[in-house]
Design brief:
This is L-fucose:H+ symporter permease. It is found in: Cell inner membrane. By secondary structure, this protein is an all-alpha fold. It has helices at about 15-45, 50, 55-75, 80-95, 95-100, 105-130, 140-165, 175-195, 225-235, 240-260, 260-270, 275-300, 305-320, 330-340, 345-355, 360-370, 375-385, 395-415.
């Protein structure tokens, strides 16, 4: 009788702790972007649909950087991939200084793009990295556990941003000093973390995704382009993986739109000031973190794909209630969307990477590219939110329906995938 597999092993513990902390770091950056969205509406006199280009810049970087990050990781390994991600993260943060001095939304978008290229690299590397730190049978739990700390970062991001950026900002103000100072501190902290990680020794990893039935290997003499096209062809035949990429695109589309206009919802439906609405955004991230811990526990009893479908159904119900604009009842539903959203990103990611063998690293980069959904959806929601921010929350229902379908169909999609 097989012994129940552990979450990770002792020899991987230090690395596991460090890589898990990366999930928190990009959680801070992503949700701070939603605070910047609102701040730029005030300071730079932007409409909701215009300010949504904060999300376009950030999530668009994921689409551009996904494949290069995967190729870099495959060639140089997990550790150097993490260091590259942290370097770009810090560089983008430091670019906020000249952007603030120029009072230029275009310059800010460049800074956000560079920063998000770092985040995309970290996400591309960290998911298969965490998955490799133990038995594949616990990879769903391991990734969801790490993503729980992404939830911690998602709580900290709006809280930090609301206190240091939104606090005391008056309409018509063009003061960007707080943004400049905050991002200099963030850049310095990320640079220090990168320096510390450069001294961490990563144990030799036996990739749990490599399986005996793997029939494909990249020839040592073939060039990068040939290897990439060969992998792309192989992956395109794995239905569960292709649907995971599509589901992730819709998942992040829903996330980007839901978070981008949360503060506007608090102001226009509930009558809060922007700082108070920002703190409620942090509370919604508590729901996300709680959902991930509970989801990780429930996966010991409910198959991940089934739990994904159940949570997608819950998110659809919450969107319907939030779209009514019924005061506190709708606002609580808006908060609870994050609870049901919580397990979606890591679970889709983990299910998509199942049984892909030595293709896992490159496959990870394509799933990260699906994050471009967060660039496509907020401007569309913004057009509706310009008129009625509550009604804009009908749109994410489409996304959660696709995710629920992925969960329900997964057993059939994943059937006999190891055949060449």
């Amino acid at each position: 009788m097989d012994q129940k597999p552990k979450l990770t092993e002792k020899k991987y513990l230090i690395v596991f702790i460090f890589v898990t902390s990366l999930f928190m770091l990009w959680g801070i950056a992503i949700t701070m972007g939603d605070v910047l969205n609102k701040h730029f509406q005030t300071v730079l006199s932007l409409s909701k649909s215009q300010s949504a280009y904060v999300q376009v810049s950030m999530f668009g970087a994921y689409f551009i950087m996904g494949i290069p990050a995967g190729i870099f990781m495959k060639k140089y390994g997990y550790k150097k991939g993490v260091l590259l991600g942290l370097f770009l993260y810090a560089l983008g943060a430091f670019l906020f200084v000249p952007a603030a001095s120029a009072v230029s939304f275009t310059f800010f978008r460049v800074a956000l793009f560079v920063l998000a290229c770092g985040l995309a690299t970290l996400e591309t590397v960290a998911h298969p990295f965490v998955a490799s730190l133990g038995d594949q049978r616990t990879s769903d739990q391991r990734i969801n556990f790490a993503q729980s700390f992404n939830g911690v970062g998602a709580i900290l991001g709006p809280s930090i941003g609301s206190y240091f950026i939104l606090r005391g900002v008056d309409a018509g103000s063009v003061d960007l000093t707080s943004v400049k100072v905050l991002y200099v501190v963030i850049g310095a902290v990320i640079a220090l973390i990168g320096l510390l990680f450069s001294f961490v020794k990563v144990p030799v990893l036996s990739d749990p995704h490599v399986i005996a039935t793997d029939t494909y290997a990249i020839d040592a003499n073939e060039n990068v382009k040939e290897g990439f096209l060969k992998e792309l062809s192989w992956l395109s035949k794995r239905k569960h993986y292709v649907f995971a990429v599509i589901a992730q695109l819709f998942n992040v589309a829903a996330q980007g739109g839901t978070w981008a206009f949360f503060i506007n919802y608090g102001e226009e439906v509930m009558g809060f000031d922007s700082e108070k609405a920002g703190y409620f955004l942090s509370l919604s991230m508590v729901m996300l973190m709680v959902g991930r811990f509970i989801g990780t526990f429930l996966m010991s009893y409910i198959a991940p794909n089934k739990l994904l479908a159940i949570f997608a159904g819950g998110a659809i119900v919450m969107c319907i209630v939030a779209a009514q604009g019924y005061g506190w009842a709708s606002f609580i539903a808006l908060l609870l969307i994050n609870f049901f959203f919580s397990i979606m990103f890591p679970t889709i990611f983990s299910l998509g990477l199942k049984d892909l063998g030595r293709h896992t690293e490159q496959a990870s980069s394509f799933i990260v590219m699906g994050v471009v959904g967060g660039a496509l959806f907020p401007p569309v929601m913004g057009l509706i939110a310009n008129t009625d921010v509550a009604k804009a929350y009908y749109l994410p229902i489409i996304c959660y329906a696709v995710i629920g379908l992925f969960g329900l169909l997964y057993p059939k999609l994943n059937k006999n995938i190891n055949r060449a």
